[in-house]
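Team,

Forwarding the record for the chain on the shared tracking sheet. I've put the sequence and predicted structure together so nobody has to dig through attachments.
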Amino acid sequence: MSPLLWVMLAAPYLALCFPQLYAKATPTLLGFPFFYWYQFAWVVLTSVLLGLVYRALKD
């Protein structure tokens, strides 16, 4: 497995591993504090990344 695929798998974990870096109230998005929409954005992004890794390994 290429190093890029490992980075794609590790990115969501590392991005959410340290909440003290993103535990903020501002900026807000549609009234939601940064803390919540940052995590939700990673839910969507993680799905995309896992799909890309799956397709790369399937071939």
